[in-house]
Amino acid sequence: MKDCRNGCSAAEAGSQELAETFKAEDLVITPATVLKEKPDPDSLVFGTVFTDHMLEVQWSAESGWEKPHIKPFETLSLHPAASALHYAVQLFEGLKAFRGVDNKIRLFRPDLNMSRMCRSAVRATLPMFDQGELLECIQRLVLVDQEWVPYSPSASLYIRPTFVGIEPSLGVKKPTKALLYVILSPVGPYFSSGTFKPVSLWANPKYVRAWEGGTGDCKMGGNYGSSLLAQCEALESGCQQVLWLYGKDHQITEVGTMNLFLYWTNEDGEEELATPPLDGIILPGVTRQCILELARKWGEFKVTERYLTMEHVQAALEGGRVKEMFGSGTACVVCPVSDILFQGQKLHIPTMENGSRLASRILGKLTDIQYGREESDWTIIIS
Ligand code: COI
Questions:
Q1: Ligand 1 pocket member 331 (CB < 6 A)
Q2: Which of 43, 201, 293, 350 is the most exposed place for a label (fewest CB within 10 A)?
Q3: pLDDT of 101-130, one tens digit each?
Q4: Fold category of 10-188 in CATH
Q5: Where are the domains of the chain?
């Protein structure tokens, strides 16, 4: 096997011949003997309740991948010097399983999460594996815990694949030991009222989320942990989320943990849905990709991956050219924006006054697919 940790591209990482990978056919399943009580889907708090089982796969440079193991959910036991804990040799993914109106369980575009996970692994110097084999193991895990997929058209089972370096040494080096595991958490609707709740944003160049040559385009825990102080300042300033700016021209890049979309009449008088391009500082979100593909298929307005700055937004607001602004992510699907606090000025974004029509249409379309109200090749039926 070619060693992807020695400089091959992310694309090669996904397509290379993988002799050294774990295989779903080798799965060992140890069922839990005590099953927990399932929570009420209407009172779930994101990421606080976990199912009865987890998937675990161990790797070492010496012996390669061990057999994947579905086992009772349990606390990890890690060496105190483990490289994930000291040097953030770590990455994760987030995807969901939905119980459809036909009672079938669907995964939504999991192949995109698997390929992004491999790209993050290359960046984190963690070992490669076969994406299809991990997806098969995840499907088996969800099947084992299938009763945890909420019987609700507004809740789902959040799947959290996690990959950590567990090198038991304080040397700053590529890990020779790693642990890939997957845990499952039933989650409720992002908006507890079931309807959109717009958020206000704190836009301050004091903090940046990502930079050229950094890890902003990978789903690595460090990107999120280091965003928390800015999030605290946003709250102290009376806002709910951070609008991440970049560069001297105050490019708008992401919002909180989400990608960002602006639906407006652009400088050339064209109706446009715009989002920043994947230039290395933007996370290639699955929902972002879905929105771009859907809007391009609708063909009703221009759809562009382009740079947007605060100056663009301010000029467009003055000219009455902003229709909607919203974030997108796995957790909420879409999240409307109502205000931006920038340089001491509160800029009102008329997303709700415009009926958040585009954001609502996208939410409706994606949830119709996820809950099986609409057939689509974006879902995999697993039972
Ligand atoms: C998402 O919504 O896609 C996220 O990544 C949120 C997660 C970090 C909780």
A1: yes
A2: 43
A3: 999 999 999 999 999 999 999 999 999 999
A4: D-amino Acid Aminotransferase; Chain A, domain 1 (3.30.470)
A5: 10-188, 199-370
**For 152-190, how does the pLDDT look when each residue is reduced to its tens digit (9 = 90+)?**
999 999 999 999 999 999 999 999 999 999 999 999 876
Q: Which residues contact 359 (CB under 8 A, 6 or more apart)?
A: 196, 324, 326, 334, 336, 351
Q: How many CB atoms lie within 10 A of CB 267?
A: 12
Give residue for tokens 């060496």.
79
Q: Nearest to residue 90, comparing CAs of 98, 82, 99?
A: 82
Ligand 1 atom 5 nearest Cα:
257
Asked whether the beta carbons of 109 and 293 are under 8 A apart, the reply is: no
Q: Verify whether ligand 1 is closer than 6 Å to residue 351 (CB atom).
A: no
pLDDT value at position 295? 98
Q: Express as a percent the part of the chain with pLDDT over 90.
A: 90
Cβ neighbour number for residue 86 with a 10 Å cutoff:
15
